[in-house]
Fold:
Amino acid sequence: MCKLNTAVALVCAVVMASACATSSKKTLRILQTTDIHGFYSDPAPRKDGSARPGGMRALAQLVDRERGNSEHAVMLVDSGDMWSGTILSDRTEGAAGIRLFNALKYDVAALGNHEFDYGPPGPERIGKGRAGFGALVKRIEEATFPVLAVNVKDRASGKRPAWMNLKSSVVIHRGGWKIGVVGAVTEDTPTITFPYVGQGLIFEDPIKPITEEANRLRVIDKVDMVIVLAHIGGACRVFDDPKDLGSCYSDAPVFKIAREVPKGVIQAVFGGHTHKRVAHFVNGVAVVQAGKHSRALGVLEVRPDEEGKPVVSIGKHIDIVMPKGAKPSKTTAYVDRILAPMEVEVKRIRNEKLGARVVDTLSRSKVEQSPMGSLVCDTLKALHPDRDVCMINSGGIRKDFPAGHLTYGQLYDSLPFGNAVAYLDVDGKTLLELVRLGTSGAHGVIQVANMAITYDRSKDFCPKADRTGEGKIDGHDRDRVVDVKVGGVAIDPTKTYKVVTSSFLAAGGDGFATALKKAGVKAKIFHGQPSIREQVGGALRKHRPVLNSPDNPAMKVKRVQFIGPVPRERCK
Ligand SMILES: [Zn+2]
Structure:
């Protein structure tokens, strides 16, 4: 409706139809979160007592403030990885997260790769066939908002999986605007999650499906503009000038969407997945990404021009902090009622002292053996003495152990994914292939026990051979291995080696799938038994070790080490 006085309104109706349309549209502020990953609670304050940004209470307060401002309309969106990684989120397999997202009245979210982490409902993490998606299907059924993934298809039917609330796109009416939203998830999902996900679902290159869906929204639904919610990311460091891409990773996949979807089809992309921030224009498209762990909101503003067409501007990220002395808003109070009882229980669990003392920070690495990798692998090797070697993926270790008396909460933060222990019996040839994959650089290097590996980062940077036999050449095909020994002896290609590893790698994660399949290796995965995290925790409780002390040299020895620089060339 035209909100002008009657006389003007009459003129407006007859002569200035387009100007009238303008006045019916409000400024729209689209607020984005992404990669919250279960970080719903208030973070611990800094050492000086000041509040760290983060948490759903502070977020609710900010969102209520924004929605309470009649100057503009508000949309609240999320780009995926809503859960997985904290005790609070994992104990309910994401249900606590969905309750909180519903409480905050999110308008829409994109599907993230970690949304698949819980497998079927219950303690098992890996499902067979459709049952494997059980926890996710339940969670998005509970959502009061749609979850979008235009580039995900059911392998059997070739169509979008028929899960309630999972959609390709949605049209949102807000502040006089009709906004089309298309969602997409990284096409890398099959190699970074459990292989059964990729066996059941196809994750397409997102450009074509986004373009087609956006055009449909424009032509059929006649939306005013299309935004993309992408669990696909970028990274920038400087935010003073949205047009200056000098501090950004220029080949970021989220920039590819802005560059390759035909001009004018989409107006904005909200990215995610890389845990970094973006607030920049790329090829005339606004790209906004809010980092991780509910610490900041990404902001996009849409204003009508004289003809009522959208003019998009990018706002500065807003730190998610409770204003000092603020009375909790209505939604904050509601969020608190959901969180508080769960937090009492989580606090008790987290604060348990395991008995281990860390002298100096126990660190991680993705390029060489790390003290954290050695601790986990040595523990597994000791608990499973008939195994010849241990191998785990660096990506499963997410935080260093800080100096001091180690708590269960710190152990959980370091090993958040709850992978089961698994056994692989492989011949030497296959073991060499796993080492090649584990040092290819397509993912972080493997962490090991009873092995010594040297690889050359400058070798085979742009591989020429399809070593995996997948019909394409990518980072998994690099052969950078210089030397491998098991127990100080060269690997015998015909001998059988017993490997203790994680369910993630045993089920084919980080590119292991093709090698294990080719060799016909049957993994033994100990579902329903204590996870790697719980086995490490149990050993720490029992032995109460002093970690990383000078008399524990094993922690310092680099069993996986690199030589050579990373080449600067770009591969075709
Ligand atoms: Zn992700």
